Amino acid sequence: MTISKMTGLVKRVWANAEALSGLLDSSAFVEDISPDSLKKLGAQAVILDHDGVLGPIRSQSPDGIGEKLIHALVEAFGVGKVFILSNTKSTRESRRDMYEARYKTVTYLMASRKPDPEGLKMAVTLSGVPSGKIAVVDDGILTGGLMAVENGAIPVYVTRRRIDENTTEKAGRLLVTIPQVAFVRLVAFSKKIFA
Q: Exposed site from 17, 22, 52, 182, fewest CB < 10 Å?
């Protein structure tokens, strides 16, 4: 990451430190997410992250928990209201093909990396639902969480109670999520002291 990108990220997190810190404090387990819990937040459509939410990092398809969640959300929200948006470039095309073949009722979005709002804007256009009524379910506080907070969507920060992953997959997931959480906590703490 370049110095200018890091400076920009610090400014974005500083501006949203309270909301992001609050998300960390109210995190939920993926296994506890239900259509009703999202509807109570005002959601009329849902964007789901793949890695760490629907399945292990870099996995080709959702695991049993992810598959169950997808089916429950499609049943509750309807076709055209459930989207998958993942930052993993190496599997984008193959995952898109898999989702199109196995999950014809969900839309896999090919968009810029989160927190860029392109994927959220695509979901708004395709679903006809305003961003304020779209839940973004993600385990990345600086990816989907920041995208949702900055663009008025409904952020839902999640972790998995249990996920079947090998050591490499677990290390990859933790090397992404732990620094993000620590960074948000540090910026939020610094803002309380210096603001």
A: 182
- How would you classify the pairing of strands 134-138 and 28-29? unpaired
The reported pLDDT for the residue numbered 39 is 98
Tokens of 83: 């989207």
Helix 167-194 with 3-15: angle, nearest 10 deg: 60
pTM exceeds 0.90 for this model: yes
Which CATH number is correct for 19-186, 3.30.1370.10, 3.90.180.10, 3.40.50.720, 3.40.50.1000? 3.40.50.1000
Three-point CA angle 175, 178, 181, nearest 5°: 145
Which regions of the chain are under pLDDT 70?
none
Return the structure tokens found at 79.
């076709």
